[in-house]
């Protein structure tokens, strides 16, 4: 795909088209355009996407459109992968990267990366439900109870909760085990990084300071 873009004249530096895919260029600080759109060379990319409902976190989606369709072509074709998954009906914060160690660090159960969600419930939230989520609930196929590290009441039908285990459908299953049902779910933070005011379907690069708030040390050459 990159070779095709180059040979068709889509790649330019300072307005000059470079259509030889064998040409050697110094990537440090390289700024270029693809089809007239400005880009900067990055050894690895770290992307924050506010995932809308109805998208699959997969490179081979089966029932819904994939989240990669929300990214511009130069990002999609360089092989960025989601750092974990959100259900097609779950919205909110999704990190993507082409840095394998970063993806592993974000998804490894041993890292216990905290992820915070806001869940809208079918029935009113009770004190017993909040207590159960804090103390731990036993899910099917699990041998030990799972507890949220923090649970707060946001409204009569809404809670904010933080988990660190990353089990399959964990928030939905925990709320069900506590006697309620999740009707809507949005992820609002990962590690020490909040979603912010990014609109649904929009993306942006993470800044170096934001990367520092995550449990991963970016290599010195990474940008």
TrEMBL record:
Pfam families: PseudoU_synth_2
SUPFAM superfamilies: Pseudouridine synthase
Catalysed reactions, semicolon-separated: uridine(516) in 16S rRNA = pseudouridine(516) in 16S rRNA
UniProt entry keywords in alphabetical sequence: Isomerase
One GO molecular-function entry: RNA binding
Gene Ontology process terms (BP): pseudouridine synthesis; RNA processing
Domain Pseudouridine synthase RsuA/RluA-like: 46-177
Source organism superkingdom: Bacteria
InterPro entries: PsdUridine_s_RsuA/RluB/E/F_cat, PsdUridine_synth_cat_dom_sf, PsdUridine_synth_RsuA/RluA, PsdUridine_synth_RsuA/RluB/E/F, RsuA_PseudoU_synthase, TruA/RsuA/RluB/E/F_N
EC number(s) reported in the record: 5.4.99.19
Reported function: Responsible for synthesis of pseudouridine from uracil-516 in 16S ribosomal RNA.
PANTHER family in the cross-refs: PSEUDOURIDINE SYNTHASE, PSEUDOURIDINE SYNTHASE FAMILY PROTEIN-RELATED
The protein's name in its UniProt record: Ribosomal small subunit pseudouridine synthase A
């Amino acid at each position: 795909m990159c070779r095709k873009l180059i040979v068709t004249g889509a790649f330019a530096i300072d307005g000059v088209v470079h259509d030889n895919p064998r040409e050697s260029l110094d990537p440090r600080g390289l700024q270029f355009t693809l089809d007239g759109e400005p880009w900067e060379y990055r050894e690895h990319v770290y992307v924050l996407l506010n995932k809308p409902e109805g998208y699959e976190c997969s490179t081979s989606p089966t029932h819904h459109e994939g989240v990669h369709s929300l990214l511009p072509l130069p990002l999609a074709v360089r092989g960025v992968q989601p750092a974990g998954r959100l259900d097609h009906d779950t919205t909110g914060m999704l990190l993507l990267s082409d840095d394998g160690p970063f993806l592993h660090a974000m998804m490894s159960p041993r890292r216990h990366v905290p992820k915070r969600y806001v869940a809208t419930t079918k029935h009113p939230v009770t004190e017993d439900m909040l207590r159960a989520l804090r103390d731990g609930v036993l899910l099917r196929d699990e041998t030990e109870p799972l507890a949220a590290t923090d649970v707060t009441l946001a409204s009569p039908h809404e809670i904010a909760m933080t988990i660190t285990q990353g089990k399959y459908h964990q928030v939905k299953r925990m709320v069900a085990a506590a006697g309620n049902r999740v009707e809507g779910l949005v992820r609002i933070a990962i590690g020490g990084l909040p979603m912010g005011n990014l609109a649904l379907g929009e993306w942006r690069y993470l800044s170096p300071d934001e990367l520092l708030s995550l449990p991963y040390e970016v290599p010195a050459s990474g940008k």
